Amino acid sequence: MLSRTAQIRLVSSHPEVYDPCDDSFALVDALLADRANLLEHRPSICMEVGCGSGYVITSLALMLGKDSSGCYFIATDINPHAVGVTRKTMEAHGCHADLVTTDIASGLEKRLAGSVDVMVVNPPYVPTPEYEVGQFGIASAWAGGENGRSIIDKILPVADNLLSDKGWLYLVTLTANNPSEICLQMMKNGYASRIVLQRSTEEESLHIIKLWRNLDTQLEVYYSPR
Amino acid sequence: MRLLTHNMLSSNIKGVTNGFPLLIEVEKVVEKQVDFNEDFLRNMFPKIEWKALVEASRTMGYTELPENAESSMLDSDEFLGKFHHALVELHLEEGALVCPETGRKFPVNKGIPNMLLHEDEV
After folding, report:
1. Chain B CB contacts of A102 below 8 Å
2. Among A90, A140, A159, B38, which one is least packed by beta carbons within 10 Å?
3. Beta strand pairing status for A98-101 and A116-121?
4. pLDDT at B4 over 90
């Protein structure tokens, strides 16, 4: 039977790259739980920002159909080692994604604007001192600055730009990141949201948020009488 | 890096207004067979900057794409085959992408372009 998620034994690793952990597994579990919806959604372009070991993008490609010739998978990471590891992980599973070493989506934003149907992000969400944010190497995988929100707050407007009208964003957050505030903020930009998975481990409490454009709300705004 | 991705990349250097398409410096091209999917090609077609794809595929050694294309051509199997080949089967394994305005090179190694900027370019 074909595995619907990446197999740990086939996931490549490197000392400077974040190995799959509870947060990665939670995100993949959330995607798996939504698999029927994702298949029905028929995304043309799926993107991961911060691919790390490649565990998540590989799992997404597998669960949407191994040859996935109907979908363009693209993944980025600021850490060149991570992108290299993702390449190996994908290859080991017989999957393919186009990979770009870059800061979030820099270089892709103009041309991919309004085109990404599914975006998945497991960001650096750990609250740390600001100076730890944006350091190259493995710390870039977790250092999230104040409330762990530095990188998340950079990613959200990029996602807003890249997502298609039917685009879905899956975002991993901690309680400390204030997920309800993120949802509220995004609501002001016309998004609906749902916490699709919550998981508490010994160390952290994870909330996977799913966000999508609430086109009905936008219509209401357009038609409301002055 | 497939030409689909090349078609989605533009120079991210601060102040650059004319950053697309990136020029391609070829060191190593690999052709990889990919399953044909008509729906995928039809979905991607409206997003593709055709001239950039033609130019890029020529740089990679493939000269079969017509100069111009319009959506009615998607009804032709022959056209679809060429579009498919250029878009997803030609890989730049080693080389560079060059900003058309500044000449700055973004290296491509093992099929992966590195778009990270230096501090003064951000």
Report:
1. 12, 114-116
2. B38
3. unpaired
4. yes
